[in-house]
């Protein structure tokens, strides 16, 4: 496939180029569509404040070109709403945490206090990594679950042995 990066995908500006790309992906099937999804996911993960609109447009274009991702795999039935929700959650974080407050160590915690299960914690993250994890998991929360994105102000750590 010629266009297998997000940069290439974003360069598809004519209806003819989009139709050719669409035919190539459809002909390749699962693998071609998977490459597109992987590039979109990586773009969402790497996106900064100023990139969010571009990434949202890329997902909208992919959704328009491939409105039935279920044709490629049953596991992708809800991929477009999932990616859109991840973008919305990450945009929400960028909107609510000013750039000057982002330096330092961050963590993401998930729990459901109404059931007996482990608390999930992703510690020692950069702001960018924590923002992505929060945005990725936020749309998947079940009833009574919560997710927290928090900055670590003070850390005391000891290692046994």
TrEMBL record:
Biological classification of the source: Bacteria, Bacillati, Bacillota, Bacilli, Bacillales
Name by which UniProt lists this protein: Uncharacterized protein
Organism domain of life: Bacteria
Organism: Paenibacillus pectinilyticus
């Amino acid at each position: 496939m010629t266009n297998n990066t997000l940069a290439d995908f974003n360069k598809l500006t004519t209806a003819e180029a989009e139709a050719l790309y669409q035919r190539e992906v459809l002909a390749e099937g699962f693998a071609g569509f998977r490459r597109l999804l992987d590039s979109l996911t990586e773009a969402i993960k790497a996106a900064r404040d100023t990139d969010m609109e571009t990434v949202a447009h890329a997902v909208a274009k992919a959704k328009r070109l491939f409105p039935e991702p279920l044709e490629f795999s049953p596991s992708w039935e809800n991929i477009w709403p999932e990616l859109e929700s991840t973008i919305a959650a990450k945009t929400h974080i960028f909107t609510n945490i000013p750039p000057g407050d982002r330096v330092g160590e961050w963590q993401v915690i998930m729990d459901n206090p109404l059931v007996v299960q482990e608390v999930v914690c992703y510690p020692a993250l950069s702001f960018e990594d924590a923002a992505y994890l929060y945005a990725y998991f936020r749309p998947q929360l079940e009833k009574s679950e919560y997710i927290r994105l928090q900055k670590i102000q003070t850390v005391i750590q000891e290692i046994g042995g």
